[in-house]
Amino acid sequence: MSLIERLARATVCLHLAPHGLHGVLRRAGRPLPDSAFHQPIANPDASWEVALAALRGWLEQDGGKKLPLAVSLASRWCAMQMVPWSGALLDRASAQRFLHSQFSAVYGEGARAWRLAADDAPYGKPRLACGIDAALLQGVQDAAAAHGRRCLSIEPIAGPAWRSIASAKPAALALVEAGRLLLATTSGGRITALHSQPCDVAWGDELDRAWRRWNLRAPQLDAIDQVALIDLSGVPQTNVPERFVPVAVASGAHLMREAAWA
After folding, report:
1. What are residue 24's DSSP bridge partners?
2. Distance CA 245, CA 170 (A)
3. How far is CA 119 from the centre of its chain?
């Protein structure tokens, strides 16, 4: 398929979260008018199994063309950390062993059942790595395949969130989701440090407290005056500190770029 054909073809961008499935159709990098949808998910325990079942149900009911999918996953199902540089990262097999050792040290032996990946930071620099339960990834792939769909990408929502604002070169990013808060610093077009924690419904106050706590461990944050804020919580706040500058976004699915570039 030529690049022109790939860009002309539509892609269904999906964001799977504990309490909802968001989607939008994109073509040539733009959401198509009136194509967005939201399917609530009754999921009090925030289980990915329940959310995956909802995705399967949507795929069964969707009567559209078998368009390819680009999928992002809620942060609570994606463990992320900065890992130190190691020569083991230069080889795929040894990279997996190294990443598993790093994640197991933080998250325990259960991390050995996760699929791990790291970004392509310059040689010798720390890398941003992510771990996702292998069963969740396989479940999304199997659900797509069962309905004749290609799954072009599956990634944590932090990736699309960062790419959506990267051209503005913010020094830091705050991503708020239902029950989860992620803070990150950025430089040279990539995430360089991050902090993730649970948060409650009243996340406006917690946002500033989280930044201050992180600042105790990372004094370099003192030099950052503004933080780009992406709110996917579904619960807007009126008491967000001025440091955090909101970025308008319709849904997690709208953060996904044209999948031809994924």
Report:
1. 13
2. 10
3. 13
Helix (H, G, I), strand (E, B) or coil at 63: coil
Identify the CA nearest to 153 among candidates 12, 9, 57: 12
Six-digit token pair at 84?
A: 């130190």
Output the CA–CA distances (angstroms, integers) from residue 107 to 78, 79, 112, 132, 155, in the order listed.
Answer: 12, 9, 9, 12, 19
Listed ranges 48-57, 196-205, 250-259; the one with the highest mean pLDDT: 48-57
For residues 65 and 140, the model is more confident at 140
262 pLDDT higher than 50 = no
Structure tokens given for 66: 């078998």
116, 131 contact by CB (below 8 A): yes
In the numeric block, the tokens 């913010």 are attached to 170
Structure-token match 């992406």, residue found: 230
pTM check: above 0.85: yes
pLDDT of residue 120: 87
DSSP code at position 259: G
CB atoms < 10 A from the CB of 227, how many?
Answer: 20
Helix (H, G, I), strand (E, B) or coil at 59: helix
pLDDT for res 1:
43
